[in-house]
Amino acid sequence: MLVILICLSLATLAAPVAVGRFGARAFLGLAVVPAAALAWVITVWPVSGEPARTESLQWVPALHMNLELRLTELGAIMSVLVLGIGAVILVYCAGYFTGVSNTRKLPTFAAELVAFMAVMFGLVVSDNMLAMYVFWELTSVLSFLLVGYYAERATSRRAATQALLVTTLGGLAMLVGIVELGEHYGTYLFSEIIARAMADPATISLGVEVGVVLILIGAISKSAIVPFHFWLPGAMAAPTPVSGYLHAAAMVKAGIYLVALLAPAFSHLNAWRVIVLGLGILTMILAGWRALREFDLKLILAFGTVSQLGMLMVLVGTGERNVALAGMTMLTAHALFKATLFMVVGIIDHATGTRDIRRLAMLGDKQKVLAVIAALAAASMAGIPPLYGFVGKEAALETMLHASLPSPIPVVLLVGLCAGSALTVAYSIRFLWGAFGRKGQAKPTSAVENMHAISPLFLAGPALLAVLSLVDGVLSPWLDHVLAEYPDQYFPPADDPYHLALWHGFTLPLLLTVLIIGTGIVIAQPHSPFSRLRRRNSVLLGNADRLYDATLRGADVLSLRMTQSTQRGSLPLTQGTILLTLVLLPVLVLTFGTRARPDLRVEASPLFLAISVLMCAAALTAVLLRNRLATVLVVGVTGYGTGVIFAIYGAPDLALTQFLVETLTLVIFVLVLRKLPAEAPITGSRPSRVARALLGVAVAAMVVVVAIAARAARVAAPVADRLPEQAYKFGYGHNTVNVILVDIRAWDTFGEISVLLVAATGVASLVFRNRRFGSAPRVSAAAAAAAAAAPGTTWLRGSALRDPRHRSLVLEITSRLAFPTIMVVSVYFFFAGHNAPGGGFAGGLTAGLALVLRYLAGGRYEIGEALPLDAGRILGTGLLLAAGGTIVSLLAGAPAMSSVAFEFTLPVFGDVKVVTALIFDAGVYLIVVGLVLDVLRSLGARLDLEGSPADMTSPLPVQTGGGAR
């Protein structure tokens, strides 16, 4: 099974190349892969009484997500449909796409179709529920891509989006149910859960029942059962091979498969019967009636498919051995005749250019072979002997007639099956008459008259499946031994086991079949009372498609109103909402949750108390000040005080980082404040200010309470004492803080530096209204030449471009002299950080502050001269380096993001030890430098340029005490 998945995956990779090179003929080669896989499944067919074939591959064992594959009797039947019909569809594609003018997207389509076969096969053989869910969601994604093949058409885009939203919504509900069942039973394997539930039904608690219901929501959404039935007719916007495979034999059968898999254990639940049996029979009747109203051949089949899926849901979900056998028979029969009919529609559309039955007449006279193929498939769908569909329909009526369900469920289901089957006969007749009938015309319509010839390759696929529908009907007693393996294995033995046969004698089900066929013929008559009823504009039970649109509009309106109420562009309102949440959530948790009794002890040095008092005084002062710059400087006291506290309690690395971050934050505040008035206005009424003050006090109190509660919740021995030893053992560094950042929790750090990159991009996008690429402005060649030619020009090249009134030569010279020294310190922090205070973050901040100094001294041109590189490229290089450290670790045979040490000897340096974490740290360093440079370009250089009347392009004379030089 793993080999099949690998082969199908390799075929997926090869498909675009093959189709791009050989065109539609490449589909014939691709069909060999699923055909060979089908042959293997047949050779290892599971036999009752023998253990199922299993294969296992470790994936994410910590999350119970391993690739546990198990070929059961049910999985084998589904594999035949997935692989067999898939191979036929690939052969059909070779004829369908021959002569198509626009083949640009065909290679991608081929890869997506083969990939769908792979994930569908993985779904039906996966024993692990979480792995099955991954395959389940992949079918939704690939279906979205396949249905949206004609992306230039609005109908295709809408249909693809609709199918994705509906099936994904059901999938999310199913995931919750999977987790509920997995946690309750202590395992995520279908086989173990079903075995335990069957052995001891008392283990099925209310939580399990809720979980089963959630899984059923996913199943009925995937199989287009009411109220999720509307997405399948819309998906007919896809190319016909997609409809013939996904919507007849594969994707829509996933929900049926899941119900059949769980039925032995949970079919006795009342909720199960309401959802599976009730909605199933309603779907069969409702969709069958809708099929009679359509004029598009594909839509007739689409609603017919929905109707048949409702019937299959009832049969496989009843929970009895005989009815389950009928369900397996109809499951396989439906795949044969519906895939055939979809391919026939594709041929008609391809040859005539239309699927509208009002534009087709006398096609049967012109294409007799195609008409015979369609007649065989439609007869099987209608349940006409001796076709395979008749055997399945007879089995369904007979077994439901003797079902041992609580009264009156069997009677209701039998009546519903008869009514739905009569509608099936009627829309089967409508399909044949609409596609091939003469309709009282003396000559063919223009579409039929001008149709192109149909190649034998195009007819091969539907002809094969149509013949199989006939052969399987005749050989149904032999198929009984194959299909009965599943119900015999999982359901209690029946008192009178039912066996498949083409002839059971003159029985009540045979009489019902005659009545069903007769009623269907009457309903299909164009002048019957039913025809006037179905021509009415009203749709039975409303229009689900319109309800879907209304739901989306309602969600848009609701989200818009919620956003308007909380996100009005007011920073105080947004901040107040966040802080209020910070207050309320811990209150609820601490009030209604369990909590440990805190053990409070005051351990504070005099220096700590003095700094704390100073910080509190600074915070209170900041509240009272109106001058923005003074407020920022006073708030900075709290930040520097925090750094001092870190240093007091033996955290020099944290203290260093805090000092650097606080300094850079002050600079950014000052850059922004240049564009704001010096004094902050008094805003809000007195009650509003009082409310904000109370909120601030509440937040402060809650932070203290949460800190105390968190401290009290620590009942286990802290691991901090072991961290230094482990940091050196696994991370090869003595600086525990740095090793934690670049090794132990490197994935978290990688996410944080990614956020830094996004933040830099966001700041730049707010300031730059158009392109932001390029380095900071530099001295132009003309200006540099003029400055060099000016008499008495000094070596301070940038100073010639600044207004003398805004210059400070002392600051300029000092900053240039200090810049190299600060950069050397920055590099030292970077290299020493693994074993001493520092690291990539601290080193990057130090380098950033050096750039800030150059900017403050010389303006926007000075920063361009100091680092003439594009900030975006520095950020991207940093992220690439950080990710590259992962690859180096993997190449060295270690887990991703873990440290590997390389020791070697250099002639000058002697013994050298390099840790792969240095590469990751280098990425952090570059991202911090790029962030500072981007902020200086955005909030510094760009705002300088917008604030000046014109960009200076010529050098200005330098004013000195003796005049101009």
From TrEMBL:
Membrane topology: Multi-pass membrane protein
Localization of this protein: Cell membrane; Membrane
Domain (MrpA C-terminal/MbhD) ranges: 613-677
Gene3D superfamilies in UniProt: NADH-ubiquinone/plastoquinone oxidoreductase chain 6, subunit NuoJ (1.20.120.1200)
Keywords: Cell membrane, Membrane, Transmembrane, Transmembrane helix, Transport
TM helices/strands, residue ranges: 74-94, 106-124, 130-151, 163-182, 210-232, 244-266, 272-292, 299-317, 323-348, 369-391, 411-433, 454-478, 498-524, 571-592, 604-625, 632-649, 655-673, 693-713, 749-768, 809-831, 837-857, 878-902, 914-936
Start and end residues of each Na+/H+ antiporter MnhB subunit-related protein domain: 810-933
Record has Secreted as a keyword: no
A Pfam family recorded for this sequence: MbhE
InterPro entries: CPA3_Na-H_Antiporter_A (IPR050616), MnhB (IPR007182), MrpA_C/MbhD (IPR025383), MrpA_C/MbhE (IPR046806), ND/Mrp_TM (IPR001750), Nuo/plastoQ_OxRdtase_6_NuoJ (IPR042106)
GO CC annotations, alphabetized: plasma membrane
Domain MrpA C-terminal/MbhE per the UniProt entry, residue ranges: 690-771
Residue ranges constituting the NADH:quinone oxidoreductase/Mrp antiporter transmembrane domain according to the UniProt record: 126-406
Record bears the keyword Isomerase: no
Chief place where the protein resides: membrane
NCBIfam families (alphabetical): PRK12644.1
Name of the protein in its database record: Cation:proton antiporter
Source species: Tsukamurella pseudospumae
